[in-house]
Design goal:
The protein has about 270 residues and is of the alpha+beta class. The chain is built from four helices and 14 strands. A hairpin with a 6-residue loop joins strand 8 and strand 9. The two termini are about 25 Å apart.
Length: about 270
């Protein structure tokens, strides 16, 4: 059973200078995104040399002051130097949901810059640990062929097993963490997940559809999910393995904001 290292120091304790204190916390898959998922990922993409563009759609009435403008959708698009991969941040007025949670990051790749369509997309809601999204993007950026699979599905399960996650006896292509709160599974892909493989389109015979990786955290059975990540069937397994290895890592992460649903499950220690 996981308990705080310092139970007398609540996570919202005021810091000496009025700011929030920082803690080293674990396990990572329950640590949330620190409320900084955009900043952490955007900074990493800037370091990789990706270009960012802000896209705003709204309604502007005559004689309306700028501060009164109604913005209906605002996204930020990050594009790799070779234009084969891109990442979009957007919490829109009518967001796309996974597991009841709005999508925060959508990451896509294509085989050729001349193609107007993505070969695959991956989706991450808020509270997915930023470290795992960054490691997925670093692996994507390093890939010479981001739309070509280079390894089998076992690579993903091996990545989490190396950090103590258990293979599901009833579902060979699934694994769960030792606390049975976070899961990763190769199986049915949710509706509307973008995939360049035509076999992934909905059909009467769903058994012919290729499987994709899904990951999620459910701190309390039956309660709302903490986070969800969904990968189209065509996302290369080696990229999903990079995400899975980072997500399941036993290395502590720095946090100032802890998810309410998992505060009591986290090991934490002050940074000083």
């Amino acid at each position: 059973m996981e308990v705080p290292l310092y139970p007398d120091l609540p996570p919202d304790q005021s810091a000496p200078r009025g700011g929030q204190p920082a803690f080293w916390v674990g396990p990572r898959h329950l640590a949330g995104d620190d409320g900084r998922l955009y900043d952490v990922v955007a900074d990493a993409l800037a370091g990789l040399g990706w270009t960012s563009l802000t896209i705003v759609r709204g309604r502007h009435e005559p004689d309306e002051e700028p501060e009164d403008r109604q913005v209906l959708r605002s996204t930020v698009l990050h594009i790799s130097p070779d234009a084969l991969r891109w990442a979009q941040w957007g919490l829109a007025d009518e967001p796309f949901h996974l597991g009841g949670l709005p999508i925060a990051w959508q990451i896509s790749a294509r085989a050729e810059a001349s193609s107007p369509l993505a070969q695959w997309s991956a989706y991450f809601t808020r509270d997915v640990p930023g470290e795992a999204v960054v490691d997925f993007l670093v692996a994507l950026d390093a890939s010479n062929q981001p739309a070509v699979p280079l390894a089998g599905s076992e690579l993903v399960l091996d990545a989490v097993a190396a950090h103590g996650w258990f293979r599901d006896i009833d579902q060979p292509q699934a694994a769960t963490d030792p606390t049975f709160t976070s899961h990763i599974s190769l199986g049915e892909v949710p509706p509307l997940i973008q995939d360049g493989d035509l076999r992934a389109l909905p059909a009467e015979d769903d058994e012919t559809r290729p499987a994709g990786w899904q990951a999620w955290a459910e701190p309390v059975l039956g309660d709302p999910l903490l986070w969800v990540a969904s990968f189209a069937a065509s996302v290369p397994h080696d990229l999903v393995a990079a995400f899975a290895a980072s997500l399941s890592s036993t290395a502590p992460v720095l946090r100032r904001v802890l998810p309410e649903a998992t505060q009591e499950r986290l090991l934490r220690a002050p940074t000083i």
